[in-house]
């Protein structure tokens, strides 16, 4: 009886230590930022497995969704509604690409590198190269900034 209580307490202590070390990054969806018009700010981040990203609709008219060709193996696809805050938990190591669908043509994108980012690095590079105009330019710069 006493032993199981102690084991339970140790498990609880470990669970608390785990959540305390996770980071939440806040990313704003903006009409204007330091990188230009229609941006996620910041547009890149280096994070670790278990961290979260909170996408905040600072300006109206934006959404956030996964770039499905830029998603680590086993990670969940995200598709947020226009003007809605979205909290994403990064459960797998790799490169996570996100876009704002209405402003894909402006290159409104965000890339997170989780862990060493190698699990889908080749696929992410290929997805950036295949993206249209401004999206290709910004995604390529974002991947370069995370190396
Ligand atoms: Cu947008």
Present the secondary structure layout.
Blueprint: H1 2-21, E1 24-33, E2 36-41, E3 44-47, E4 52-56, E5 65-66, E6 86-89, E7 94-99, E8 109-114, H2 121-130, H3 133-145
Parallel strand pairs: 1-4, 3-8
Antiparallel strand pairs: 1-2, 4-6, 5-7, 7-8
Helix pairs in contact: 2-3
The structure holds copper (II) ion.
CATH superfamily: Cupredoxins -  blue copper proteins
Helix amount: 25-40%
**Element-by-element helix/strand order:** HEEEEEEEEHH
What class would the helix/strand composition place it in? alpha/beta
Could you name the ranges where pLDDT drops below 50 across 5 or more consecutive residues? 11-17
Number of domains: 1
CATH architecture identity: Sandwich
Computed over alpha carbons, the radius of gyration is 17 Å
Number of helices: 3
CATH class: Mainly Beta
The oligomerization state is single chain
How far do the termini sit from each other?
52 Å
Strand % is 25-35%
**Averaged pLDDT, please?**
91
Tally of extended strands? 8
């Amino acid at each position: 009886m006493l032993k199981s209580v102690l084991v339970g307490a140790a498990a609880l202590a470990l669970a608390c230590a785990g959540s305390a070390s996770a980071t939440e990054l806040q990313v704003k969806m903006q009409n204007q930022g330091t990188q230009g018009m229609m941006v996620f700010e910041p547009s890149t981040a280096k994070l670790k497995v278990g961290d979260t990203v909170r996408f905040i609709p600072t300006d109206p008219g934006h959404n956030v969704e996964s770039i499905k060709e830029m998603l680590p193996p086993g990670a969940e696809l995200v598709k947020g509604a226009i003007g809605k805050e979205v909290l994403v938990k990064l459960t797998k190591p790799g490169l996570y690409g996100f876009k704002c669908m209405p402003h894909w043509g402006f290159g409104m994108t965000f890339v997170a590198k989780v862990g060493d980012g190698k699990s889908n690095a080749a696929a992410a590079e290929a997805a950036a190269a295949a993206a249209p105009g401004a999206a290709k330019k910004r995604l390529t710069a974002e991947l370069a900034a995370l190396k």
